[in-house]
Amino acid sequence: MKAPAALPPPYNWSGFYLGPNLGGAWTSGSLPISVNNLYGGITEFIGGGQAGYNFQAGHFLVGVEGDFDGATFGHSVLPTPTLGTVRQNWTGTIAGRFGLVEDKWLLYAKLGGGWVHSNATLNFPGVTWQGSNTSSGWLAGVGVEYGFKPNWTLKLEYDYIGLGNWTSPTVPPIQLNRDLQMVKFGANYKFERGIADTVAPTRAAHSAERSENEDLAQKSQNPIADLVSVPFQSNTNFNAGPFNRTQEVLNIQPVIPLRINADWNVISRTIIPVVSQPNPFFNNNTNGIGDITQQFFFTPTHPGALIWGVGPIFTVPSATDPILGTGRVLFGPTAVALVTPGHWVIGVLVNNQWSVGGNPLRPNVNAFLAQPFVNYNMAHGWYLTSSPVITADWLAAPGQQWTVPIGGGFGRIFKLGDQPVSANIAGYYNVVRPTGASNWQLRAQLSLLFPER
Fold first, then answer.
1. Is the N-terminal amide bond of 32 cis, ω within 30° of 0?
2. Beta-bridge mates of residue 333
3. What is the pLDDT at residue 76?
4. Which of 21, 124, 355, 402 has the CB geometry, 3.0–4.6 Å to 184, for a possible disulfide?
5. Going along 125-263, which residue ranges are E strands?
6. 3-state SS string over 276-335?
7. With b meaning 16 or more CB within 10 Å and e meaning fewer, what string describes 308-334?
8. What b/e sequence results for 58-82 when a residue is b if at least 16 CB atoms lie within 10 Å of its CB, and e otherwise?
């Protein structure tokens, strides 16, 4: 009899770590003047880093973590920026972490304190105020972290900082009330290895790599595969607006599968858009972060021939400039279904979102999206692809609701050193589009893939 295969050692979370993060932040608060609330909050892009130490005891973890993030975007508290602005420059936190560990997965909570540095300017009739302040408050947060390499982890985290009032020295005094919420995507380098090195089974190198490439290609083309990936998708939209200018949207789209139990997984898909939007009136662009979208797909672990997932989708008004987002909180259902016959991956992803909150002065939103995808995988990692994004604005005027592109391209799975990546390029023509929309799109994507070892 053969001895049973040895189980791999569990992932080790203990030790020091550090790494970068980026995400979005928004505030809620008030700036009451003559009983009128003139301040609706700030939405902004944040980026920085964190460092900390973990101690693991079985399935339990305790630790301490500090982070620092810069934020350079402000918000007009009155209709024109010359009358008043509030700007946040940086945030810092230090907190204890308390978590539950299941091998490579860590679910944790944070509790501690935070600091926010802000500037405010107000030139209201009868009241003039200009100052800066570093406010402190309590911090609470939750997050999930995944160890995808012996020394590397990825995390998605939500934090809430409750801040005290900032009172001006004016007569009468003005109190700026605001709390801060943050969503961050980060990576950490662990100074202690999470798992021991293992030796792969011996087999024919040529056939093994060919089989691995095709399997990895199909997984990377499946939106709800059990595969950690970080796609960077560049969308260049030509001939947009009245002066036929070019819009650029870079979507950062981390995908993280989470195992609920033996029968169900949940797939987290985040879309962080970095936008360069041409001005419709002047020869310049508005650059910044757009509204961040989060999707969760609940999918069976063993789905059979038809692979499917359903769940919620929501979008937060994280745009750093009003022109880059809707200003509204969106929510709705999302679903995906696909089949993988032979060398093909064929399916469709759909969702619809409605405005359920945010700035009531911004227009309501009722938006539909459908993305059919067809991929054919060939030898040596090459593949053909088509995945047009069809959208509908149900509140637009008749004849201005739909955008329907057609097109496709090609790509390849390969390695940069030991890192598997998928790269593709495609072109799409909008056969149906509203007035002012671009007519052509060039899409290029590079995806970092992290298959289970």
1. no
2. 312
3. 47
4. 21
5. 127-149, 152-163, 166-167, 175-190, 228-240, 245-252, 255-259
6. EEECCCCCCEEEEECCEEEEEEEEECCCCCCEEEEEEEEEECCCCCHHHCCCEEEEEEEE
7. bbebebbbbbbbbbeebbbbbbbebeb
8. eeebebebebebebebbbbbbeeee
Residue type, 35: V
Range of the domain at 277: 205-450
Final residue belonging to a domain, choices 135, 162, 190: 190
pLDDT digits (tens, 9 = 90+) for 11-54: 899 999 999 998 888 775 555 554 444 444 556 778 899 999 99
175, two tokens: 């109190």
**Number of CB atoms found within 10 A of residue 142's CB:** 14
DSSP structure class, residue 401: S
Residue ending a domain, choose from 155, 190, 225:
190
271: β partners: 293
Q: By three-state DSSP, how is residue 381 classified?
A: helix
Angle at 320 between CA 314 and CA 322, to 5 degrees: 85
Given a cut of 60, whether residue 180 has pLDDT beyond it is: yes
Question: From the CB of residue 7, how many other CB atoms can be counted at a distance below 10 Å?
Answer: 6
- Burial of 265-299, coded b for 16+ CB within 10 Å and e otherwise, reads bbbbbbbbbbbebbeeeeeeeeebbbbbbbbbbeb
Q: Are residues 176 and 257 in the same domain?
A: no
The amino acid at residue 175 is Q
Length of the chain counted residue by residue: 453
Average per-residue pLDDT in the chain? 84
